[in-house]
Design a protein that fits this description.
Blueprint (H helix, E strand, L loop, with lengths): L4 E7 L3 H12 L3 E7 L3 H8 L7 E3 L2 H5 L4 E4 L3 H11 L7 E5 L5 H10 L5 E3 L1 E4 L20 E5 L6 H13 L3 E4 L2 H26 L13 H7 L6 H10 L1 H23 L3 H16 L2
Parallel strand pairs: 1-2, 1-4, 2-3, 4-5, 5-6, 8-9
Antiparallel strand pairs: 7-8
Helix pairs in contact: 4-5, 7-10
Length: about 290
């Protein structure tokens, strides 16, 4: 099978970065996969997988020198900083992407950093995370049948966007190309809002410390709150960067919540029934 890309540099080998490296090698997508991680301990773990990582470097600049594609797998708060640091070492014509869950702010900043440089940035967002973090939980099948956004800004991004779509599809993903601002609106409703709602459920349960409601919880509560176990520091950054769209999503959610509260208070069984039936019909089609 002919490889899709030459050398891929993965900067940040946590759950997503290490899983991507494993998937690229397992599916013979890249000729070489090289890596850098901020943590020396994680770099040592990468070196324990020579069949996955052809080289593991101590600096991001070393990692990107010969890379055809650079994938920045760091929290959204660090993406621009990492790209700024590697600019002097980028190969001419290199493609750069990220895996962050906020795109408008990141894409604007990265395009500015690369202005007048012979490298192209197009954002990516593989919707394949987990509440588990770190290389120890990495899995080459993490991306299978999951959605992935690519967020080009203009027609000038077409060549990079096409190559990224090819690569993400090759590791098993369903690719959707949308502008960065549209992406942020979508994920505010289907990813960021659910995380905040899960956190709200936990914090509401905390209001009854004398009962410790965890002792009585079944799969419904556990499933509904699972994602609140995600790294709070990462989510701090996500919420800050996408606050406008998240606030809009929360306001829509609040309106829906107030509506069902009113229906329950007024014993409006017909409205309550419709609410439950509509929710079931939507969920059953997922």
């Amino acid at each position: 099978m002919m490889k899709i890309i030459g050398t891929v540099a993965v900067l940040g080998t946590g759950l997503l970065g290490a899983s991507l490296a494993k998937a690229l090698k397992k599916r013979a997508v890249a000729e070489k996969v090289v890596a850098w991680s901020r943590s020396e301990q994680t770099r040592e773990k990468c070196r324990a997988f020579p069949s996955v990582f052809d080289e593991v470097y101590d600096t991001p600049n070393q990692a990107v020198e010969n890379a055809d594609l650079v994938v920045v797998c760091s929290p959204t708060s660090n993406i621009v900083e990492v790209i700024e640091s590697i600019v002097p070492s980028l190969k001419n014509g290199a493609f750069i992407t990220d895996v962050g869950s906020v795109k408008e702010v990141v894409c604007q900043a990265c395009r500015k950093v690369l202005e007048d440089k012979n490298a192209i940035f197009v954002g990516s967002h593989p919707m394949a995370g987990s509440e588990k973090i770190g290389i120890d939980f990495s899995d080459p099948e993490l991306f299978e049948a999951r959605p992935c956004f690519i967020t080009p800004y203009s027609d000038g991004d077409e060549r990079c966007a096409k190559k990224l779509a090819e690569i993400w599809e090759a590791v098993g993903m369903k690719v959707y190309s949308v502008p960065p601002d549209v992406h942020d609106s979508i994920v505010a409703n289907i990813s960021h809002l659910p995380h905040i709602v899960a956190g709200t459920l936990c914090n509401t349960a905390l209001k009854f410390p004398e009962l410790d409601l965890r002792n009585y919880s079944g799969p419904g509560f556990r499933d509904s709150t699972r994602i609140s176990s995600g790294n709070p520091e990462i989510w701090d950054s996500i919420i800050a960067d996408n606050r406008k769209e998240i606030v809009n999503a929360l306001k829509n959610f609040s309106s829906e919540l107030n509506s069902i509260i009113e229906s329950i208070e007024n014993c409006q069984s017909e409205k309550i029934g419709k609410f439950l039936r509509d929710a079931k019909a939507y969920r059953d089609k997922l």
